[in-house]
TrEMBL record:
InterPro entries: FAD/NAD-bd_sf, HpyO/CreE_NAD-binding, L-asp_N-monooxygenase_NS-form. Signal peptide: none annotated. It comes from the Bacteria. GO terms for molecular function: hydrolase activity. PANTHER family: BLR0577 PROTEIN. It comes from Paracoccus yeei. Keywords: Hydrolase. This is Hydroxyacylglutathione hydrolase.
Amino acid sequence: MPVVAIIGGGFTGAVTAVHLGRAPTGPARIVVIEPRETLGQGLAYSTADPSHRINVPAARMTLDCARKSGLQDWLDAQGIPLSPGIRLPTGEAFVQRRLVADYVGDALAPLLASGRVRHLRASAVAAERAGGRFRVRCDDGCALAADLLVIATSHPPPGIPAVFADLARSPHLIPDSSDAARVAEVARTAPNVLVVGTGLTSADVIASLDCQGHAGRITALSRRGLRSRGHAFGHAESAADFAAAPSRTALGLLRRIRQAVRRDAQAGLPWQAALDNVRRDGPAIWAALPLAERARLLRWLRVWWDVHRFRIAPQVEAVLDRLIVEGRLTLAPGRLLSARQAEAGIEVTWRGRDLRPRSEVFNAVILTTGPAHGGILAGSPVLSSLAEAGLIRADPLHLGLDVAQGCHAVGKDGTIQPDLLVAGPLARGHVGELMGIPEVTAHAQQVADRLAQLLGAREPVSGTA
């Protein structure tokens, strides 16, 4: 039987396997290579911390585009009791993130039981073409031959800002905020904490520290000191349409969004209404922008998009608001200047908006600056091996991997790879908006559909990107 190997069994890889497993492709083996015990968890949904919640209502999350409220429907069907505070008075439920993994796992269970999908519990460390097929080597010593290969790996690990490079081994520096044990230790032992970054990951860390009894001070520092915005519920939809005659420049897009927000405000709608439509029309917006304008958008507007697009769960927002009122949380804009080891921790110096340097010793520094997408190839052994073989390359904007036709990898020489596909956020340089669950689900289904076509017809793909 033909073999489809999916490298990465987080949400993207698992959902790709679900849809391919359900497709009428004829005999085929689907193997998901994932080191975690359970498929569907990945980095985002493996956390067991109850303070880590999805940042959109369950009714807007799904693994099947045909069922827009898939997660909420599953919660209701399973009769899973929701703890107090999860459901808002308006009805929206912001559940713990671990439940998303349970939801995906439940969809995969019959496919795993039947053998249609196999979970190879290992990490892929190298891949190459051999004899017209792929040969994937894993860290447990096994090797897998595959006819079709899908890259569905997670985001790369966070990068360490240059000022902290010499302190990478310091016991006071937590470079990866997903290290729950070290974050818990900080909650117990560090009265003065610096969190570098003020986005959603930063909010999760602060909520986790508070949940575990941290009673000291927390400073959250980022270039602009912007925190993720909140949700608005119960409003009508905006009439704004950004897909019709889409803007060809980043500045034109910004002006168009501002005009839409002003028009909506006159009609009594919150800014969230127009921004929801920007997200909806994301693929058309991105496709219309030339490469130089995409780069300009990322440089000047991305930080503003991120804080308005990636909104904070109301329960987590309430924690941050309370800590600010109590004087225990400070959001500070500033540029990092230096960091050095001190007797009680790490002395960090930064320059604020007043351009005056400020220094303070923190008992712990937690980095939440996000994945180092610019180093995606160097940071992953299996991706590095594929790049060395000329089968993949980074996209021009360094958002992930270069893809064409929606999901096919582009090789070093610009050739579209007919049997190598990329699923999920690593394809966002081509697709545009590809970070939220609705977009990731749609892209995973697209990849699964393409795989089903290739399995059914062994249809070749040729050309250059």
